[in-house]
Amino acid sequence: MRNIKPVIIINFKTYPNSTGPNAVRLAKICEKVAFETGNDIRIAVSAPDIYPVSWVVSIPVYAEHTDPYPPGRHTGSVLPEAVKAAGATGTLLNHSEHRMPMKKIEESIRRASKLSLVTVVCAETPEEAEKIATMKPDFIAVEPPELIGGDVSVSTAEPEIIIRSVKLVKEKHGIRLLVGAGIRTKKDITKALELGADGVLIASVIDKAKDPEGTLKNLLT
How many domains is the chain partitioned into structurally? Predict the structure, then answer.
């Protein structure tokens, strides 16, 4: 697609096909496709699956979320120290299904970065992405919420969102940009890269596929 490999992050979410033992199965498929195609594939899995998944694959494994709190009295929280100890090398933050206040985003980026965890922060609009860019995450993933899980990609439905995000995130702040929402075909990915994105964040097209290996290969080759 380009000389610099695009980053493909697959968010496992909490589908039956991508949690528990099935998370391990899907992770192995993602790793197999990464090796066979030479693509930079990374996966984000739910907290209980980080350890068993990271134990069996060598591709980067990210947490789907971490909280900004320090170790202590924070029952039920997902600490960056815990996900790193379990084998994660990065974390998603502020996904549209797990939104965070700006103050917590900033503190979460700071704490994760201090532990050398890669931070991928989601934003719903280019304007929100620009605010987050000032916090210096490693990646920002722009995903219009109305298109997530749908049949029409952001590349097709709202290419201007990608164009504006490139200007506000990459060109203005030097932060690498991912895009997502409705990404279902190789054409969707190619268009996003042509518009200036550094990669994509995808989920249901792989998580819910009857043939995830074939689907992922078709997306990338």
Answer: 1
The residue written with tokens 């043939």 in the block is 211
d(CA 63, CA 221): 27
- Cβ 90 vs Cβ 62: under 8 Å: yes
C-alpha–C-alpha distance, residues 81 and 86, integer Å = 9
- State the pLDDT at residue 208: 94
Q: Does residue 77 fall inside a structural domain?
A: yes
CA atoms of 2 and 216, how far apart (whole Å): 18
CA distance 188 to 214: 17
Q: Specify whether the CB–CB gap between 112 and 66 falls below 8 A.
A: yes
- Mean pLDDT, the chain, whole residue set: 92
What is the CATH classification number for the domain harbouring 62?
A: 3.20.20.70
In degrees, to the nearest 5, what angle opens at C-alpha 15 toward C-alphas 143 and 211? 90
Other C-beta atoms within 10 Å of 84: how many? 19
Q: Which residues are catalytic?
A: 95, 143
In a domain, 2, yes or no: no
Q: What torsion do the CA atoms of 42, 18, 125, 179 make, to the nearest 10 degrees?
A: 40
Domain that holds residue 67: 7-220
pLDDT tens digits, residue range 70-110? 999 999 999 999 999 999 999 999 999 999 999 999 999 99
